[in-house]
Amino acid sequence: MTDNLRVRFSLSMALAIAVAAPALAHHGTAVNYDSSKTMTLEGTVTEFRWRNPHSTLFLDVTDESGTVINYAIELPSPTLMSRGELGWTRHTFKPGDHVVFQVHPSRTGAPVVLGGCTQECEVLINGEPAKKEY
Amino acid sequence: MWNLRRASSMVTVLALTNLSCTAFAQSDPADSQTEGTESQNLTGVWYPRSSTAGFPMSQWSPQELPFTEEGRAAFDANLPGKGPRERLPALGNDPLGTANPPGLFRTLVYPRPWQFIQAPGQIVQLFEWGKHWRTIWTDGREVAEEIVSGPFWYGYSVGRWEGDTLVVTTNNLDGRQWMDEWGTPMSEYDATIEERWRRVDDETLELTITVIDPEIYSRPWTSAVKTYKLQSKDSEYGEPFEQIFAPIDEAVFNERVRDPLAEGPIPVE
User: Is residue A134 part of a domain?
Assistant: First the structure.
């Protein structure tokens, strides 16, 4: 019973905290990315920079061959993110967190991606939807 | 909320007591060069709501700009990461990318809130973007000639009221700034830009600029109307915060995000 409740609560939280596209799409470096494509990045946080000009989440991602690549996920500035519906802070991601994040790839194939997607998408931290903290 | 009834009662109070206004009240009509009107109140936090859809060259104009030969060369030399001439920012030369100030006119077309505070003889404009500010002097002084300590990224501005329109002349501009995100140029020292601000209703401010810069433009040109909406205190953009591009942060961003984006295995022009 408890497990079922927990799963149902997680799903409803996921829907409630789904990342709205505009908050992550108002962006100064859109030309770098292919917004027509979406991929899911899964990895371990190495660093979270909550800084101007744009915040960045760094993940160690292990590819199919077992090679670890450090990806940078570009995000909006702290000011913009604080105004959206995300409710994230500089404490939202910590080194060692396991994260699942839907992103747009770079046009050059570089390991730098744009956080978010053109439809609502979900960010998981250690299996749970990223928490709305305010 | 600014409305006619409140404005009328405030004018009555000012007439009876001859008070000079505080920074958060209407401007004192006695400070303007024309008879005061109830609409000479630009106070508040404002957020831009204008479209540049279809603009061919500049975020300021739906028309092609009348460049001189030198102006065209300056335009071509500016390599933006946005607009009709966008390219990967790492392959461009946007001065913002190395933590230079955005400058006045680029800030006026950028989607960040700013605030007008009116006081006797001056109107101060505070910008969240870059945490910069400027003063529009409305104390009757003459338009500035060359100011020895300039030029300035935010220029030197002198304003006067023409009815309900605030006419501002800004010069002494540091022309290394871009006028917008798309790389619209100005001359290094000699641009004069006239701004016309008008509050068309409670919630709406309109701006047009006329650019007089013979080195870059063969004739003066006037912009499209830019619209700004009043932000209430509790709205999303109701409080300007701070967005500073510190060199320490720009350097890290460029090294770890901007530049690697141009170095992947797939060639992109």
Answer: no
**Chain A: closest CA distance from residue B97 (Å):** 9
The DSSP letter of residue B267 is -
Interface membership of B241 toward A (CB under 8 Å):
yes
| Domain at A73, CATH number | 2.40.50.140
Question: Taking the domains of chain B in order of start, what are their residue ranges?
Answer: 44-247
User: In whole angstroms, how large is the CA radius of gyration of chain A?
Assistant: 15
Asked if the C-beta of A53 comes within 8 angstroms of chain B's C-beta atoms, the answer is yes
Nearest chain A residue to B267 by CA: give it: A108
Is residue A14 in a domain? yes
Q: How many residues does chain A have?
A: 134
134 residues of chain A, pLDDT tens digit each: 444 433 333 343 443 334 443 444 434 589 999 999 999 999 999 999 999 999 999 999 999 999 999 999 999 999 988 887 788 899 999 999 999 999 999 999 999 999 975 445 579 999 999 888 88
Q: Phi/psi of residue B37, each to 5°?
A: -120, 165
Instruction: Write down the ipTM of this complex.
Output: 0.82
Q: Which domain holds residue A81?
A: 2-129
Torsion from C-alpha of B207, B241, B100, A51, nearest 10 degrees? -140
Flag whether residue A72 sits within 8 Å of chain B, measured between CB atoms: yes
Beta strands A39-49 and A98-104: pairing type?
A: antiparallel
Q: Is B207 helix (H, G, I), strand (E, B) or coil?
A: strand
pTM: 0.84
How far apart are alpha carbons A43 and A38 in whole angstroms?
16
Domain count for chain A: 1
> Is residue A98, in this structure, part of any structural domain at all?
yes
To the nearest whole Å, the CA of B210 is away from the closest chain A CA by 27
